[in-house]
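Researcher: We're teaching a course module on how sequence relates to structure. For the next exercise, students receive a sequence and then see the predicted structure as tokens, so they can try to spot secondary structure elements on their own. Here is the exercise chain.
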Amino acid sequence: MTAFISGGCKNGKSSFAEALACKLRKSDAPLYYLATMVPTDHEDETRIKRHQEARAGMGFTTIEAGRDVLSVLVPSMDYSGTLLLDSTTALLANEMFAADPEGQIQYSAHVKVADDVVQLMDRFDSIVIVSDYIYSDAFLYDDLTEAYRRGLAYIDRKLAKHCNVVVEVCLGQRIIHKGRLP
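Model: And here is the predicted structure for the students to work with:
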């Protein structure tokens, strides 16, 4: 099963995704947690620690990859396991704003991120993907922020299309937009 989970910040997406990944796990198959956040300040470090503590004892093997998520795939990995990717939002930021030799913004990073995650989906028996819903406000943003928002929307649409289940988490409530939860 492939599941795409989106919603606002601090609405319970990660805890729901963790529970769903555990539910999708087949007997003794491994649980992988692909953490994509690269901490840039104390608040990020605190958030990461809170997430680690929340999933402690759940059986996840944590893999950290802020960029180039396909690089974590190794021959010894058991693809019959379940992969939880948290989150495409951080992954896009890392790829888009990665320092290149000329210091250029990677405006096409959304295509790479979407294609890489689809390749992960093709490898694993079960995958749960977390993203943030950042489209509901009516503010006008600068061109760079709009490019990021459009890029994330592109990723979300592509992944939602490829997933069996699409769920929005809003204030802890689950709204199923596609498919059925197990």
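Model: If you want an answer key for the exercise: The chain has a mean pLDDT of 92. The two ends are 9 Å apart (CA to CA).
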